[in-house]
Amino acid sequence: MSVRLESFQYLPRGADGWGSRLLSFGAMFTAVQAPNGAGKTPIMKGVMQGLGHEVDLPPDVLARCEFAQVELSVDERPVTLTRRLGAEFEMHIDDGFNQQAFTNQAEYARWFIGLFSADLPNLTSKQSQPAELYATVLLPALWVDQDHGWTTDYWTPPNRNFIRDQRQEVMRFLVGLPPRHPFRPKTDFEAAKRSLDRTERALEMQRFVVDRLRTNEQLSDNEEPGLIERRLQLRQELEINSEAIAAIRSSSSFYNQEIEALDTQRHELTVRANSLNKQKGQLNLVLSELDGEEDILTANVQATDLLRQFCSREDCHMFKTSERSFGRSLLFLKDQIKDLKASDRDLSLDVESVEIQIKQLSYAIESKCAERDRVVNASPQGEVVGKLNGLTKELVDVELRIARVQQYAAELGKFERLLDQREQATVAVAELRPAGIRGATASTDVRQMLSEAMQQWLVTLGTQNTKSAHFDDDFTLFVDDAKFTATTHQSGSTRTRIVLAFHAALLEVSLARGGNHPGWLLFDAPKQHELSQVDFDAYTDRLQMLAVKYPGRVQVVFSAADLKTQFQVGDEVWHASFTIDGEPRFLGDVGAQEQLEIGD
Questions:
Q1: Under 8 Å CB-to-CB from 325, ≥6 apart: which residues?
Q2: How many CA atoms lie within 13 Å of 591's alpha carbon, on the beta-carbon side?
């Protein structure tokens, strides 16, 4: 599932509250740039708060802002997250079709984590109880806050570090590995096998859908850009001839009204004819049943005549009662049949009359259509009628082709995601297999990939005084054979580079493995004196290469006063749009700002 950041906004608390302008995220890079004191950190923290994280916002922000609102794009469908500030947890989700409200982190986490993974991890707490992966546990692996994030590779306060080997479990989830400490592993192993079976079946079904679309529609790669360009050309040509189209519509409007009226009459008569035919069918069914009754009564009368021969007396009254009863019933039945046949003849005449009227109306409609076409062709615009018809037909064909191409792309995307899910499900089965029959796991390969990527990113950042970096069996980061923690010897500049390299390496490996990383990196104020512009440019250039390799999967947001980057088309820069006491600010009185803009 593709989940992208689209926009962020603070909404004011009351008429005198503060808000921000609508801030749109870039396709790849988003830079929050302003002088120190303008409020870059509250903006970054507001984004995280809007995603469900727990961060400490300044008191004046809590007092003046009521909501933090983030809009996501989930498989190109807008989904709005609105978080109430300064209160108990309250998150509202609106996807345009359904609205949901969450009032606790656990319920919201199931929804949020479900955006990135079809299977929610079943973890174990430090008290050996079942535990869930909350948003407040996952998001620290995606963002670096100004206060604590630059000191270590994954930081959470003690009250939010409740999962056994929490840092490792978060990393394993992001790269698509099963949990290290799943709760009730035997049950999880059976569930993993069932999940793999379901994924295999879904994959085969999706493969069939993709192959059928590709074969039946004869689709080719990179067809959509050409179709979109042709659609634009056709629309422009039709727009150029809009006056001719309007004139043609005007000259034919009278005929169209008459044709529509005749067609309405024909429809009404068709409905009546169907009703008459239905009545006629029901009447024929009744007549058929009555004919059967008549045959039975006739046979009874004939039988009575035969039985009378057994009596030797001419005035025998043995069968007189039966004979009289059968005779009366037969006469009554014949009268009924006679009346019903008369009704049947009347219905047949009515049906014939209505069908004649329908034929006459159809002929009249054809005549009016032909007359309309003659008038249009004889008009000054008649010369372009054929051309316009051809353009319109081609436009319809192009629209249909674009729809098929987009449908194919969507189905192909589902197929590729199922391939990733199968890979994860296969790894889960291998990881959870009972001890004694478990083969080589994917954990070793992932740790090797992370170690190599970490080393490469450190080189990219121009990190000095470090010779090696690797991850051990517990996914703990070692730099120069020493465990990397908040208290190790690395200087501020080296530590900043290690943190940047860690997050980039984790993202790169997850993308390479089809993991569950949403592709977001959010950095709040890397210290400019600890990271040169040259090294920062090398870092962003390599992130750009990663984004090209995995289109639509990488978004990087950073706040800084001085650091710059080479922006591409689609990237965004957020500037402070309010002025308070002569200083730029990201937050302010939205209503007053709008009135000022109207006055200008």
A1: none
A2: 7
Q: Which residues pair with 33 in a beta bridge?
A: 560
- For the record, the structure tokens of 112 come out as 């949020």
CA 403-406-411 angle, to 5 degrees, is: 125
Rounded Cα gap, residues 323 and 327, in angstroms: 6
pLDDT at 252 > cutoff 90: no
The fold for domain 245-380 equals Helix Hairpins (1.10.287)
Parallel, antiparallel, or unpaired for β 3-12 and 23-24?
antiparallel
Among 241, 243, 221, 239, CA closest to 231? 239
What is the distance between the alpha carbons of residues 288 and 285, in angstroms, rounded to a whole number? 5
Strand ordering across the sheet containing 91-94: 23-24, 3-12, 65-74, 77-84, 91-94, 99-102
Assign 440 a pLDDT band (cuts: 50, 70, 90). very low
pLDDT band at 321 (very low <50, low <70, confident <90, very high): low
**Which segments of 144-241 does DSSP mark as H helices, in order?**
166-175, 185-216, 224-240
Assign domain 3-177+442-599 to its CATH superfamily: P-loop containing nucleotide triphosphate hydrolases (3.40.50.300)
Residues in the chain: 600
Note whether 510 and 176 are within 8 A (CB).
yes
Structure tokens at 369: 């259509």
- The reply to whether 245-380 shares the fold of 3-177+442-599 is no
**Residue of 566, 599, 600, 581 whose CA lies nearest to 31:** 566
Question: Which residues neighbour 329 within 8 Å (Cβ) at sequence distance 6 or greater?
Answer: 297
Q: Is 599's pLDDT higher than 70?
A: no
Residue 520's Cβ-count burial label (10 Å; 0-12, 13-18, 19+) is: buried
Alpha-carbon distance of 80 to 72, in angstroms, equals 6
At residue 167, φ and ψ (nearest 5 deg) are -60, -45
Question: CB neighbours of 547 closer than 8 A, spacing ≥ 6?
Answer: 28, 553, 554
How crowded is residue 172: how many other Cβ atoms within 10 Å of its Cβ?
A: 24
Q: What residue segments make up the domains of the chain, in order of their start?
A: 3-177+442-599, 245-380
Sign of CA dihedral 99, 521, 121, 46: negative
Please say whether the beta carbons of 210 and 412 come within 8 A.
yes
3-state secondary structure of 116: coil
